[in-house]
Task: inverse folding
C-alpha cells in the first residue's frame, strides 16, 4: 500500500491489486480515515436510532441479526479525492492527501437494509434526511468531533443502503469500520460512515463538520475556509475511469499491448462505454467491458492498443447511462480541495 498518512491512517493499493478481480481483496481495499481508528467493543456496542422517529431503538449486533433480514450487496466505494494527484499536477493543493487512482474499491457487503431498521423505528412525516455518526473522533474539526454525514431520506429508504458487518464474506476489520458501518452505494465514500453508533432521522442535511464544511466542491478561485455551507455539497459520484494495468511508467514491447482498467458511475447510473487512445485522442479503440456485478459496482474493461517505440501517453474516457462523458483535461475540473477529478485517464508507457 502507498501510505499517505500514518495517523490518521490513509492508504491506497498499487493499481495491479485492483486489476485481477471484480471484488477487491480486503487487504487491498483503500483506507480513508479522519481520526485514529477507534477501539470499539462489539460486546457492549449499541446502535442508537433516534430523531424524528416514533420508536427510538437501541440495537446490538445480535438484535440486528435476529430482527431483520440479512442482505448482501456488491458495491463500489470511491473517495471524493480519488485521482487528486492529477489535479495537484495542474496546481498545488496544500493540506490534502495526494490520492492516486486507487482510492476506490469494490466489495460484497453483508448486513441489513437501513430501510428495514428505519421502518421499525417509524419515520415521522417531517423527516427529510438520515444522519450517521461514527465513533472516530477527528481533530480536523474545532473542537474535535465524531465523523458523520447524512443522505436524503429517499436514498436511505432504498434497499441497497446497508448497515454492514461483513465484507467479502468476512467480518469487517477494525480499519474498515467494525463492528458496523454504513454502505451507501452510488455516493462518495464519506457517506458510508464507519464505526457507526447512531442513526438520526432529521428534517435537514447533517451539520457535521465533514458534511457542512469539508466535503464541498469550491470554485477554482475560492479561498479554502471552513465556512459551513460554502460551495456545493458532494454526493453522487461522477462518471470516472482509470488504468489498472500495465502500471504507469512501465516499459512494454512495442506493438499490440493489452491495457485494462475500471470505470464507475454513481447514483443508479451504469458505465456503458470506455474508449482508449494511443495517439492523443486522434483515434480511439472501444474497450471490451466486463459484466457488471450489480448496478452499484464498477466495470472492469480491457483493450488492445498499438504502442509505438519510445514514450507514449495513453488516454481513456468513459460514458455512463445518462450519456455523460468524462471531461478531457484536469485543468477543466481543478478545484482548491482536489475533489472529483474525473478527467480523462492518462497512462505513460515506453515501447521497446
Result:
Amino acid at each position: 500500500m502507498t501510505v499517505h498518512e500514518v495517523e490518521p491512517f490513509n492508504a491506497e493499493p498499487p493499481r495491479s491489486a485492483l486489476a485481477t478481480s471484480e471484488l477487491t481483496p480486503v487487504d487491498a481495499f483503500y483506507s480513508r480515515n479522519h481520526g485514529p481508528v477507534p477501539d470499539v467493543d462489539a460486546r457492549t456496542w449499541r446502535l442508537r436510532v433516534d430523531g424524528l422517529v416514533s420508536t427510538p431503538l437501541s440495537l446490538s449486533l445480535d438484535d440486528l441479526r435476529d430482527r431483520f433480514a440479512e442482505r448482501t450487496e456488491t458495491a463500489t466505494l470511491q473517495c471524493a479525492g480519488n485521482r487528486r494527484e492529477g489535479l495537484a499536477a495542474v496546481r498545488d493543493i496544500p493540506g490534502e492527501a495526494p490520492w492516486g487512482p486507487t482510492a476506490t474499491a469494490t466489495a460484497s457487503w453483508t448486513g441489513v437494509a437501513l430501510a428495514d431498521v428505519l421502518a421499525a423505528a417509524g419515520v415521522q412525516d417531517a423527516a427529510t434526511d438520515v444522519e450517521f455518526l461514527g465513533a472516530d473522533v477527528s481533530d480536523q474539526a474545532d473542537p474535535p468531533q465524531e465523523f458523520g454525514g447524512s443522505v436524503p431520506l429517499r436514498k436511505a429508504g432504498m434497499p441497497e443502503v446497508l448497515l454492514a458487518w461483513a465484507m467479502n464474506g468476512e467480518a469487517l476489520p477494525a480499519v474498515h469500520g467494525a463492528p458496523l458501518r454504513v454502505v451507501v452505494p452510488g455516493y462518495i465514500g464519506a457517506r458510508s460512515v464507519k464505526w457507526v453508533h447512531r442513526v438520526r432521522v432529521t428534517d435537514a442535511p447533517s451539520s457535521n463538520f465533514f458534511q457542512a464544511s469539508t466535503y464541498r466542491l469550491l470554485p477554482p478561485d475560492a479561498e479554502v475556509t471552513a465556512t459551513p455551507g460554502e460551495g456545493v455539497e458532494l454526493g453522487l459520484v461522477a462518471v470516472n475511469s482509470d488504468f489498472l494495468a500495465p502500471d504507469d511508467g512501465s516499459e512494454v514491447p512495442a506493438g499490440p499491448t493489452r491495457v485494462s482498467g475500471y470505470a464507475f458511475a454513481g447514483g443508479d447510473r451504469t458505465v456503458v462505454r470506455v474508449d482508449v487512445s494511443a495517439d492523443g485522442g486522434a483515434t480511439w479503440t472501444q474497450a471490451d467491458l466486463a459484466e457488471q456485478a450489480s448496478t452499484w459496482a464498477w466495470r472492469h474493461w480491457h483493450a488492445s492498443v498499438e504502442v509505438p517505440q519510445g514514450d507514449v501517453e495513453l488516454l481513456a474516457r468513459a460514458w455512463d447511462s445518462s450519456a455523460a462523458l468524462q471531461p478531457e483535461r484536469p485543468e477543466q475540473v481543478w478545484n482548491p480541495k482536489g475533489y472529483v477529478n474525473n478527467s480523462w485517464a492518462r497512462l505513460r508507457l515506453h515501447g521497446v
Remarks:
- The first strand starts at residue 2 and ends at 5.
- The chain has two domains: 2-233, 240-351.
- The CA atoms of residues 131 and 264 lie 25 Å apart.
- The radius of gyration is 21 Å.
